[in-house]
Design a protein that fits this description.
Strand order of the largest sheet: 3-10-9-8-7-6-5-4
Number of helices: 17
CATH architecture: Alpha-Beta Barrel
Distance between the termini: 39 Å
Radius of gyration: 20 Å
Strand content: 5-15%
CATH class: Alpha Beta
Shape: globular
Order of helices and strands: HHHEEEHHEHEHEHHHHHEHEHEHEHH
């Protein structure tokens, strides 16, 4: 086993152990992937101020996200097909998050269902909702999330239509994978993944199959998802969902100050500055670039979080310094999951936490609550 010290180490191992179509699904953006790359590279431009001869004892990174105590301002983002990166992937990631002390958010397009996660965890988790044309199905999804004691609903607004991701088209992405000769040959080089998949029954979108009208088998699922994402989604639908849900509501996919003000007006408890990991509008600004303006516009009125491009604890600290009161990691934990299962997700969280803690100390702080943009070098953000 190689020595793992960074998220990049986990990515390399993930690529080695997971079938190409699923690794590519996790590690790609839309069109030219310029926004996907900018999410990461724009963090690197922000420089930190090193401070010395300050007391570094008794440090804490603890805070709250929508009132929930967290070990650090990081949650596991909702990611589709997580259970295809590793067998029972969502269950393993949720368990790792619970043990570590950070929130886990389950995607509508997960392989393991809401009920699967509830059965295998004790801490409340969050559920991410996509708005479909079938409003009856949406109502049942929300009711299932309530029954599973989900403590927050994350409503994603930036996927009414799907951005074109060239790798997914070329790979013929499907869950489970179609047994073509190239796919079979590729899977033969991933014995750990294959053995895991043979040992589980969770190989399709279990939140949908058997729950949505007219979706009973795999053959009807792809056509249903293509037809069901609702391009007519609007802020009136947000109000309807908030009333139906009745609990903590987080709006994901905000990249514009005007939309941020609408999120505040909707009564949401938090918003996530996000470009869907560079997977939707290619050519949009990076999340970290958009963050300060949105914090200035609405940060006094709503809890502002961000996701996109976080690959280290330093990135988390930079986002916090620029006003984010929470962050979400998607690819960083998927790399760990694909590399080493539950232990890999734990490893990813440990790496990020250690980097966050040590960097905070080097910038002269013991408590993340006292960290401001003063830790950043002027002119680099």
């Amino acid at each position: 086993m190689p020595v793992i010290t960074t998220i990049e180490d986990l990515r390399v191992l993930h690529k080695k152990r997971t079938p190409k179509m699923f690794y590519d699904y996790a590690d790609s953006g839309s069109w030219t992937e310029s926004t996907y790359r900018a999410n990461e590279s724009d963090f690197q431009k922000i420089k930190l101020r090193q401070r010395v001869a300050v007391n570094m004892e008794n440090r804490t990174t603890a805070t709250t996200m929508v009132g929930q105590q967290v070990k650090m301002p990081v949650a596991l983002a909702p990611t589709g097909l997580t259970g295809m990166q590793h067998a029972d992937g969502e269950i393993l990631a949720a368990r790792a998050a619970e043990k570590f002390g950070v929130p886990f958010c389950l995607s509508t397009m997960s392989i393991c269902s809401i009920e699967d996660i509830a059965e295998h965890t004790t801490a409340p988790f969050w559920f991410q909702l996509y708005v479909m044309k079938d409003r009856g199905f949406i109502e049942r999804l929300i009711d299932r999330a309530k029954a599973a004691r989900c403590s927050a609903l994350v409503l994603t607004l930036d996927l009414q239509i799907l951005g074109q991701r060239h790798k997914d088209i070329k790979n013929g992405l499907s869950a489970p994978p179609k047994l073509t000769i190239p796919n079979i040959m590729n899977m033969m080089t991933k014995p750990r993944w294959c053995l895991g998949m043979l040992g589980t029954q969770r190989r399709t979108f279990r939140n949908i199959v058997g729950h949505a009208t007219g979706v009973g088998d795999l053959s009807s699922l792809s056509s249903w998802t293509a037809e069901q994402f609702d391009p007519a989604l609007n802020w009136g639908d947000v109000e309807w969902i908030k009333n139906r849900w009745g609990g903590k509501l987080i709006i994901k996919g905000i990249l514009d100050e005007e939309d941020a003000r609408k999120a505040v007006a909707s009564g949401a408890d938090a918003l996530i500055v996000s470009n869907h990991g560079g997977r939707q509008l290619d050519g949009a600004v990076s999340s970290i670039y958009a963050l300060p303006g949105i914090v200035d516009a609405v940060g006094k009125d709503i809890e502002v979080w961000m996701d996109g491009g976080i690959r280290s604890g330093q990135d988390v600290l930079k986002a916090w310094a620029l006003g984010a009161r929470g962050t979400m990691i998607g690819r960083a934990f998927l790399y760990g999951l694909g590399a080493m299962g539950e232990a890999g997700v734990t490893k990813a969280l440990e790496i990020i936490h250690k980097e966050l803690d040590v960097t905070m100390a080097f910038t002269g702080h013991r408590d993340i609550q006292n960290v401001t943009k003063d830790i950043l070098y002027p002119g680099t953000y």
